[in-house]
Amino acid sequence: AQSVTQLGSHVSVSEGALVLLRCNYSSSVPPYLFWYVQYPNQGLQLLLKYTSAATLVKGINGFEAEFKKSETSFHLTKPSAHMSDAAEYFCAVSEDTGFQKLVFGTGTRLLVSP
Amino acid sequence: DVKVTQSSRYLVKRTGEKVFLECVQDMDHENMFWYRQDPGLGLRLIYFSYDVKMKEKGDIPEGYSVSREKKERFSLILESASTNQTSMYLCASSLRGQGVETQYFGPGTRLLVL
Fold first, then answer.
1. Which of A9, A98, A102 sits opposite B40 (nearest CB)?
2. What per-residue confidence (pLDDT) applies to B98?
3. Is the pLDDT of residue A54 over 70?
4. Burial class (CB in 10 A: 0-12, 13-18, 19+), B7
């Protein structure tokens, strides 16, 4: 069965520092992988998705993620954190292009200090 | 602009009440989903629907039912609300395409059962 592990329920960075949010997946078939962001009191918004076209995926707001099959990872990075990046981030995996079901990780809350 | 709306942002109900949560999407999407979000647990799939009048159980369907009488509307029903159903409920929709489609989320309904 597919699953996602997000290491670190909270990550704190200073404004301008590198952001690294970790995601490891388990899947019996080549997976599709997603990162979503949730700002306070809002629903989830897609940041980026991996669909096997390219291992380095660029998303919105300067975020990117690299698919590493050998490490079963899909870590999210941003070179320079901004205060507006403070939010909760969810990694998700799907094996299913029919029903489009997703399995989510437990989330990582990113805190950005001035 | 894509839009998923949920009938209430906040809801307070008593134990034993029947509760209806409504979700409407204006994107002509075939797939619709109901999740609950709890701290430390991420998002868990309750039910999903891939067509009008069609429904499938997700990972945690116990205590819930759903209804999809029209393509744009997907309702989540708590037949007899219990305190352990206090949670944030998120609705999402997606196309049933050939590839991997993005799920679009509503803003969520925060339900408190007393």
1. A9
2. 67
3. yes
4. middle
